[in-house]
Design brief:
39% of the residues lie in helices and 15% in strands. The protein is of the alpha/beta class. Helix 3 runs antiparallel to helix 11, helix 4 runs parallel beside helix 11 and helix 12 runs parallel beside helix 14. It binds pyridoxal-5'-phosphate. The site of pyridoxal-5'-phosphate (PLP) has 13 residues, from helix 5.
Length: 372
C-alpha cells in the first residue's frame, strides 16, 4: 500500500521534530537476527542477571486466567504493600508503567512550553527527552568529578524552573549524593521547585548512611518526589512497574493525569510478590557486589579505568573509541553499552552479571583491546 504523494501539513513544533528517540540497550533477539549468534550475554540495561523472583513468576502465572478483567485501577494491594514497606500512607504513592512513566507524569503536571527543568550531564537520558517533548527548556549542568554538582545546579535555578531531576545513584557514573550536601542544597532552593530523587538503584547501595534517602525527607518537605522501580534489583524490567513517593497533594495531581489502568494486572501481581521475596533481593545484592569486584579487578588488569559504583553496573574507560569496542564485543556475542550518547566517547557501561557472563565479557574485551 502506498500513501499518496501529497503530504498533510501537520503543524509539528521544532522541539518534536528534533527529538532523538531514547537509545535503548541492544536487545538479544536483534543481535541473534543480525549476526546469527547464539548464547548471547547482555550486560547493557542494568537488568537483574538472576532473573525475576520465583515468587513473582508463580504469582503472574496464577493471574493469567484473569486477563479478561481490567486491572485494579487504584492498585490497592500493591500500594498498601509499598506503604507498609516505607511506613507511609498509600495516598502519597503513585504507580507507573515503569518509573519512566512517573517522569512523564511529573513533566505533564508541572512543565508548560518555555518552563525550565534542570538535570545533570551525564545522567539518565529520559529526563531531558520527556522535557523536550513537552516543549520545556532543558538546563543541563555538568557533573563535577562524576558527582552531581549541587552548587551549580542551585545556581542554575531561576523563576522559570519547575523541576530538578537527580538520579541518586547517578546513571551512568554510579556515584551518590551525601545527606549533608543534599540538606544544604535543599535549604537554598525556592519553595515551589519539585526535586525528584530518582532512586532506581538505591537497593544496591551498601552503606545507606552515606547517601541521602528520599524517604527520610518525605513528610518534612513537600518539594520532594522519590522514584523507585521494580526493573532493577527486583528483576521485573519486562513488566514495567515503578512508583513515586510524594506528598498526598502532589500525588493527587499526578493521579488526575495518568491513564486509569497504567499498570497492568500482571505487573501489579508480579510486583506485589517480588516485594515479599526478601531472599531473592538479598541474593541479587550479594551477586552484584561480587560481580562488581570481579569486573573491577579484571578490567584494571586490562589497563582500563573502572570507576567505583554504588549500583549494579560499572562505568569503564577502555581508552579507545567505545563505539568500536562495543561493535567488536557484539561480534563475540557480548552486549554492553557504549557511552557516547552520555558524553563519554571512550567509556562503556557494563551491568553486573552472572559469573560466567562476567567472564565472557572480560574475555571479549581482552580480545578487542589486544587486537586494536
Ligand atoms: C536512573 C534511572 N531511572 C529510571 C530508570 C527506568 O526505570 P523503569 O524501568 O522503572 O522505567 C532507569 C533505567 O535504566 C534508570 O537508569
Amino acid at each position: 500500500m502506498n500513501y499518496p504523494d501529497t503530504q498533510p501539513s501537520w503543524d509539528i513544533p521544532d522541539y518534536l521534530t528534533s527529538l532523538v528517540p531514547y537509545p535503548p540497550g541492544k536487545p538479544i533477539e536483534e543481535l541473534e537476527r543480525e549476526y546469527g549468534i547464539r548464547d548471547i550475554v547482555k550486560l547493557a540495561s542494568n537488568e537483574n542477571p538472576l532473573g525475576p523472583s520465583p515468587l513473582a513468576v508463580e504469582a503472574v502465572g496464577n493471574a493469567l486466567t484473569n486477563l479478561h478483567r481490567y486491572p485494579d485501577g487504584s492498585a490497592h494491594d500493591l500500594k498498601q504493600a509499598i506503604a507498609a514497606r516505607y511506613g507511609l500512607k498509600p495516598e502519597g504513592i503513585v504507580l507507573g508503567n515503569g518509573s519512566n512513566e512517573l517522569i512523564e507524569l511529573l513533566v505533564r503536571v508541572f512543565v508548560r512550553a518555555g518552563d525550565a527543568v534542570v538535570s545533570s550531564e551525564p545522567s539518565f537520558l529520559v529526563y531531558r527527552k520527556v522535557v523536550q517533548a513537552a516543549g520545556g527548556k532543558n538546563v543541563i549542568v555538568p557533573l563535577a568529578d562524576l558527582h552531581h554538582d549541587l552548587t551549580s545546579i542551585a545556581r542554575a535555578v531561576t523563576k522559570k524552573t519547575r523541576i530538578i531531576f537527580l538520579d541518586n545513584p547517578n546513571n551512568p557514573t554510579g556515584t551518590v549524593i551525601s545527606p549533608k550536601q543534599f540538606e544544604t542544597f535543599l535549604a537554598g532552593l525556592p519553595r515551589d521547585v519539585v526535586v525528584v530523587l530518582d532512586e532506581a538503584y538505591m537497593e544496591f547501595v551498601d552503606t545507606p548512611s552515606e547517601t541521602v534517602q528520599g524517604v527520610s525527607i518525605l513528610g518534612k518537605d513537600q518539594r520532594i518526589v522519590v522514584l523507585r522501580t521494580f526493573s532493577k534489583a527486583y528483576g521485573l524490567a519486562g513488566l514495567r512497574v515503578g512508583y513515586g513517593l510524594m506528598s498526598p497533594d502532589l500525588a493527587t495531581l499526578l493521579e488526575r493525569v495518568r491513564q486509569p489502568f497504567n499498570v497492568n494486572s500482571l505487573a501489579q501481581t508480579g510486583a506485589l510478590a517480588a516485594l515479599k521475596d526478601a531472599m531473592h533481593l538479598q541474593a541479587t545484592i550479594e551477586l552484584t557486589r561480587k560481580a562488581k569486584t570481579y569486573l573491577t579487578e579484571s578490567l584494571h588488569g586490562l589497563g582500563c579505568t573502572v570507576y567505583p559504583s554504588k549500583t549494579n553496573f560499572v562505568l569503564v574507560d577502555v581508552k579507545k573509541d567505545a563505539k568500536t569496542v562495543f561493535e567488536m564485543m557484539l561480534r563475540q556475542g557480548v552486549i554492553v553499552r557504549a557511552m557516547g550518547a552520555y558524553g563519554f566517547p571512550t567509556h562503556i557501561r557494563i551491568t553486573a552479571g552472572l559469573p560466567r557472563e562476567n567472564e565472557r565479557c572480560v574475555t571479549a574485551l581482552e580480545k578487542v583491546l589486544r587486537r586494536s
